[in-house]
């Protein structure tokens, strides 16, 4: 992949302030001049680099007009999320691990229609929340999401009819911030060269949460009323929200800059320094047009950044096939006389596949790190090398599905064959999600929440549509 070192692969290269001529970058995206930085080149608004260029130009203009100096990240590197001690960053990731498990774990606990409604609405909810975490901060957005998710479990548990349950599931899906916000926190705390272990941890919580629900739910269904599935979800959700509220600090760099600048002015250290939010008024930043652009940011990236589109469709297609396969577990294992909790335990091989894939990525991380150190100016080493292992593990998806299909005819064939196929499917699912997310976080940095939002949208929307069909 060509281009100058340090520029984002798969994204538009910034033109000069007076450059109005178009061009095409290495990903095939169209480059336009700064006059189009407010979205006149596409139906749905500006691309990522155009947004950055516009903000930088506006920042310089405001500084000249107001005589207020805008603080930069380089001035306070030691006070941002990148400077958190290792134990603090891993504690934050562990709480986010629980958040992911809480949000994803409920998705398979209702009937097929309920799962489909949740997944489809969650696809849009993920897109809805992601860009706001970049404007208002990760913590308040996650707190609002957790609160609403907990609230909307009540109609599911107490609803007098099927419609009430479906409404609760739909509102719960729309209220779920999901992985795009939590993955954005990794970009807040880790440089791209050191993020892979953190990404692997959070990705495992995301895919692992989807099998934890059926495992726990199988025992609940066997021994308790089905509503206890929702009550357990609510209890766990409240506990996780309180832990997040009391122990996880804000990690979004722009929000931390707000506090740093106010502290420096109050102490007299730098009385003329201001944060971006103070220089631009609230109404300038959140006019109706800006509000629409903010919400549409993940959709813009999904459609205008070709690498985001390609990787998101790969991830979405994979997730849809896997959800269709999972929906057949009850029918398949009833042939061998499995009861409810035994069907739930049949999800364990998928988890074994997730763990095995996670282990396979560890030596790949070490190879990638050495390659980046040897070739600091090589774009493939810095970015695309993160996708190398995916080339070998992605074929596990069709292989696992074929094994599962050829061994699910019931006795006299042993059920262990289907579980072997499930484990191979788990390897592929983890690998596809891990590699694509790692690449997007590295490539898009502070805008990774919006970039990964497109990935989440494709995964959940396609899965929801195919589960319902």
UniProtKB/TrEMBL annotation:
Q: Where is this region: Disordered?
A: 1-33
**Where is this chain's protein located in or outside the cell?**
Membrane
Where it mainly occurs, coarsely classed, is: membrane
Q: Where is the composition biased (Low complexity)?
A: 23-33
* Keyword Membrane in annotation: yes
Residue span, Major facilitator superfamily (MFS) profile domain: 74-469
Q: Which GO terms describe its cellular component?
A: plasma membrane
- Keywords of this entry: Membrane, Transmembrane, Transmembrane helix
Q: Which InterPro entries match?
A: MFS, MFS_dom, MFS_trans_sf
Q: Which Pfam families match?
A: MFS_1
Span-the-membrane segments of this chain are 166-186, 198-220, 226-246, 306-333, 345-365, 389-407, 413-433
Per the record, the domain of life is: Eukaryota
Q: Per UniProt, what is the membrane topology?
A: Multi-pass membrane protein
GO MF annotation terms: transmembrane transporter activity
Q: What is this protein called?
A: Major facilitator superfamily (MFS) profile domain-containing protein
Organism per entry? Monosporascus ibericus
